Amino acid sequence: MPAKANALKISRHFTESGKDPFDKLSWSKRDVEIRNFDGTIAFSMKGVTLPDNYSQVAANVLAQKYLRKAGIPKKLRNVKEKAVPSWLQKSVPDLKSMENLPENEKFGEEIDGKQTFRRLAGTWTYWGWKHGYFASEDDARSYFDEMSYMLASQMVSPNSPQWFNTGLNWAYGIEGPAQGHHFVNPKSGDLERSVNAYEHPQPHACFIQSVSDDLVSEGGIMDLWTREARLFKFGSGTGSNFSKIRGDGEPLSGGGMSSGLMSFLRIGDRAAGAIKSGGTTRRAAKMVSLDMDHPDIEAFIDWKLTEEEKVAALVSGSQHLQNHANEILAAIEAHPDEDTKFDQSKNISLAKAISVALQAYVPENIIARVLELGEQGYTHMDIETYDTSWEGDAYSTVSGQNSNNSVRVSNDFMQAVLDESDWNLFWRTELDDASAENRDPAPCKSIPANDLWDKISKAAWSCADPGLQYDTTINEWHTCSPDGPINGSNPCSEYMFLDDTACNLASLNLVKFYDDETTKFDTEKYSHAIRLWTVALEISVLMAQFPSEAIAQRSYDYRTLGLGYANIGSLLMRMGIPYDDNRATSICGALTSILGGVSYAASAEMSSVQGPFPRYENNKDNMLRVMRNHRRAAYNAPSEEYEGLTVTPRGIDSNYCPEYLLSAAQNCWDKVVTDGEKFGFRNAQATVIAPTGTIGIVMDCDTTGIEPDFALVKFKTLAGGGMLRIINQSVPVALDRLGYDKAQSKEIVDYVIGTGTFADSPGINRESLIRKGLTNDIVDSLESQISNFTSVGLLVTPSIVGRDFCVEKLRVKESFLDDWNFDLLDHLGYTNEQVNEANDFIFGRLTIEGAPHIKDSDLAVFDCANKCGQYGTRFIGWSAHINMMAAAQPFISGAISKTINMPHESTIEDIKQVYMDSWRAMIKANALYRDGSKLSQPLMSGTVLKVDIEEEEMMSDAIVSTEQAIDSMAKALPTPDAVPLARKIVTRYIAQRRKLPNKRQGYIQKAKIGGHNVYLHTGEYDDGTLGEVFIDMHKEGAAFKALTNAFAIAVSLGLQHGVPLKEFVDAFVFTRFEPNGPVIGNERIKMSTSILDYIFRDLAVNYLDRNDLAHVKPEDLKPDIVRSVGEAETEQNLNSGLTPAGEATDGHEIQLTLDDMEVSTADTSSFQSTVSDLSTTNAPLVSGDNALVKEAEKYGYEGDPCPECGQFTLVSNGSCLKCVSCGSTTGCS
């Protein structure tokens, strides 16, 4: 369709007619690289052309995730279409021009950001032009230029599926077999099946799917798992409300009783856990929600908590089961009389072992089995033991771990909690029957509402689930309630609408519209961007294909959009306004009001051209009611003026909001109501606040979604590799805004991040180092490397200063050079106090608290979500998070994705208060996380579980040590020299040496740990079992080399005398001493806490199949099989140009599993090496003490490794997490 005179007119705010929009930016070629935590390259790309405004991190993420890696023709030609301008025509490969090119050079990858930005902007403009959205060709060109510029300048970004899929057919003519998708023909309105995988792109990230109370039919339970799998496979997220499924014990129509909801949820959970979302190691993104009146609600609330307790039971029980079983076998073997070994009246040790096992609830049949094995000559029993690793077998055994779980609470339930009244649960069939018969349903059970409230709060306190979705509030703001209620949400809870619908997202970078010089927010450009991006999201619905017929039809019928923003935390800091401040919430309310109002005004404008969404007339009155309520919130109307609301929203407080923002926030809603009444709306929903994980990094946002900042000091990735510590760029701007002069600002910044120089440092400085014997050249070398370290102790070491110099000039003993506990600063005579002072001066205190010149009244401006550094005490309280959400929610069509982080010390009562306050604040959904509450995560840094009982007091009477066994046998021997004879009998009977063959198999493994080369050489018996090990530390000192050799001999003798390898593994894995850290050169082991930890991890992986101790699973070394047949056929004919490292990014990533524990020294007097000590000295006593975790937490990170790149740079991202190093996210956006 050509231009339409009454269609959209597009003005220019960022570009000029006749000029390339990209010319307004400066561009350059750069190399991009993403490294794994061990330093190996995960992705590398040379010569990528990008705008200079992109940071290295943003460039890395854009290049790795969003530049198309295959199928880009070297030569293109336009495809002429009637009434389509030449500059907007589709492109296809120019096969004739490429005839003379070598096959491997005909196709390549996107290597220029302009290609990607034009691909997206051009596709939206093309579809908009074809279907009459623009008034003229000039308007279409203006739209294309403005959108191109906004993408390149990081002002706005769509969700990831747009970057992945949009424009591949329009820009490059890429085609492929259909994947079972559907779309509604925008001209005919007919539902059609896609015949090409790329002509209609799949730009949607968020889905809500229905499920009926049917086992195998279409739309039923088992069908949902298939529909979910289709979405997970391609990286999207989905949510469903399961309240229609009958409860446990509910009568069936054909007789019998239902097996209940939970049995089916377990199946779906395991299915989701088996699918790698988007083909990566990330779990599927899924939301499971349930109404509070469901008969199985109690089991659902406790589901994740109960399953985590099962994990704890597996971890603890498996170890104790093995210990008790082997104690029984040890007692049998230690008894001197062969005839009475199994007679408990004669073998007291056996009787005690059995008694203690029974008291420890070891099942009788297991004890009987152990005795029977003992009668058959077995002296040891191997039982699988587990740990709390998220990737471990214990977690994979239980259910409920592969989704976000939420309960839907109504106002009636919340009132029942306040009234301390009962709450009714109903059979599902009874609700249907009562509705058909127009009567009140009869409850199947009544329980105190506060019992359920306590259960919800305790579960959330314990394991962060379930979250709450406030059903009444959600549906009172529902624009299409005549067509049915909103039952569910997407996994991150920002998209809430009717079942079987989808939403595509985009977010504006608020900081890009703020002028630091004038301290004004440009509402005109902001509104212009909102209007144009609302059009882009509407066109995305027009052009899209969907994974099911129902979703395709309903997306066409309602055309829901999800425009939002990011970086409000950084904006407020730049304004010099604390996040926890009335001014902040008022500004947030105003900016969100402009977002919602201008977006709906654009929807009404498009409705005047294209007509309203097909189901508008059926929902017109209700939708206009909702628009009027949005407008009332902008004017902060009294509660009695709102229509159909039971919880009053928090309007914009004019006392705290700048007049120009308030005026814009109100005027846009006047236009919405007026134009909506006249033209209707093109879209049933328009806005959400999404987590903006990966796209937030691409836009260089300091903060995501509606979140505050997480730390004042961050790390900047350098183009040549490595990291540079930098101050949050909002801090200097805020200091200037608050009136500090340049000199004061510099002193404050230096206090936070450090001076980065030895000059004028107290205690340790250039002068003192030279007095201690270092040369000017060495000090210059140290000075140049300060940015690569985080403390002076890690900087001033023999390896940096020089080994020969340390020995010859500083009188360091050569043996100390290889002692990883050696402290060169201590050797030079520096005190701990001097070292700490130097660290604070050179590397900074990481907090602004205590900085020179800073006023106490200004500290709140710089408060972050977490305490900053080891000295920081301030952080943003949970009430501020609720207030900010409450300020934004009245102007958002959907909801807000956000997790409220709470300190570890928070109580269950605090949890209740957060949930109650959220309801009263008219928030639609809420999830929270109490620090350290997840079983799979370490306790917060510094938490110590102390056991004050002496080891001897903790020893079980049933533990049979070597000396006890010798004493028992000596008493039974009628000779005067019984003890020496008993010792010889015991040791020889238990352990007889098994000689290795003269010619033996094995392997040699080379690796580097903490910069030290380690060679592991193994020798095997003919049956393939391990019989000997040799350890060589290349070029290490004589003493340490001799020690490792002696240790290897001792282990080899143990193995040859029957000591199971498992016992060595249990004793030495997780031991902690230097050297440690990343492992380079081993394809399965990527991190170690010591040399011994690495050695026995490797042996366990290769000889015991202990994949739980590896960081890379066997299947992760295989090629990815998620790719479609069409893509595989296409790429066989293409030269992708990927480096080997680049190919790895399309396969699987490394998942680090750093276990933060210290294992006590093994008891060498143990009677039998196969018997473990049951005392608590073998249990981990310290949690959160791992140096990497502590360092990460110090800088405001979560303390967990990124599942994609392994870096310890995960931060909160809405209700999910994102990695600020590689851009990966655990959500669906």
End-to-end distance, in Å? 33 Å
What's the total helix number?
43
Silhouette = globular
Q: What is the C-alpha radius of gyration, as a whole number of Å?
A: 33 Å
Helix content: 25-40%
The overall strand count is 31
Low-confidence runs of at least 5 consecutive residues: 277-282, 938-960, 1119-1186
Largest sheet: 10 strands, mixed
- Proportion of beta-strand residues: 5-15%
SS class: alpha+beta
Average pLDDT value? Answer: 85
Structural notes for this entry:
This protein has 1229 residues and is of the alpha+beta class. Helix content is 39%, strand content 12%. The protein is built from 43 helices and 31 strands. The strands form ten sheets. Strands 7, 10, 11, 12, 13, 16, 17, 20, 23 and 24 form a ten-stranded mixed beta sheet that branches. Strands 27-26-25-28-29 form a five-stranded antiparallel beta sheet. Strand 8 (182-184) and strand 9 (191-193) form a beta hairpin. Helix 20 packs parallel to helix 22 (659-679), helix 21 (616-634) runs antiparallel to helix 22 and helix 39 (1061-1068) packs antiparallel against helix 40. The radius of gyration is 33 Å and the shape is globular.
